[in-house]
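User: I'm designing a mutation panel for Secreted protein and want to avoid disrupting the core. Could you give me a predicted structure to guide residue selection? Please restate the sequence first so the numbering is unambiguous.

Assistant: Good idea. Sequence first, for numbering, then the predicted structure tokens:
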Amino acid sequence: MTTNSTIRAENGPRSTRWALILMAATLGLTGCAADSPSAADLAVLADLDPETSQINLPLEAYAMDAGEQEVVGHANALTMQSCMARSGLPYPRAALMPEESPPFPDRRYGIWSMADATANGFDGPMNATSDAVDAEESALGEGWYSATEVCFRNETMLPMMAPDIAEETVVSKGMNESYGALQRSGVLRDVRAAWVDCMTENGTDVDASTQVLMPDMANPDKRTKEAAIVGATCMDEVGATEQLAGYESRAQLDYIEQHHDELVQYRAVVDKTLEGAREITASFG
């Protein structure tokens, strides 16, 4: 069995997540674990950050996290800036520094973090700097957009190796498998039923068209920050995110055992890509 220390030595980043591996082994939740773990067992495996609204799953450590994606995105923006400059055109996005873009709230099961619900409701977080760049680019006209398409085709862009990219990788395959297993599980059914009961008791309608735990958003009059707060409150009361994230973590730990070598190789490519991104950024001073 791959141990906590072995994985940390191979990968390095996000060592707190690898503590999940050790806990899983200690609790007997990997491999031949019981098919129906208790809510408490699942909650132990959940690695949550309510303040930043992030749900950390074990497989994500083998791909680029939000900060690493920003590093690569910034390097690609600098490459685009250089290309556009040859045509006498600006590329405003290159001025965005990675630290200016906080991670987007993780709502894979619904709006669960009170910090997210109270600040944003159903909307995404505001980023004044990014919004200003969007407006600046929109004002540059169709000719500018055509020039960006030419640069995208002609320049070599570093790959964005996020956990959930559309193309299948050893990471995205495991992410999809764990989420699919969750959707078919009795855990999601039971958690959602408890959450719906809580929502009903608080006079808030739910979205019956989806398996995620979201209030009814079809009616604009119901798409309120108050509804988002009630939804997050009920998520907390029934321990929804802890159980759902714990279930996926448990499935992913098994997947990591089965695909260990491939995952380590994939992370090595991620690290090499990040090294290239930092070299590009350094070359621009």
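For picking mutation sites, this is relevant: The chain has two domains: 4-61+164-264, 66-113+124-163+276-283. Residues 29 and 35 are 9 Å apart (CA to CA).
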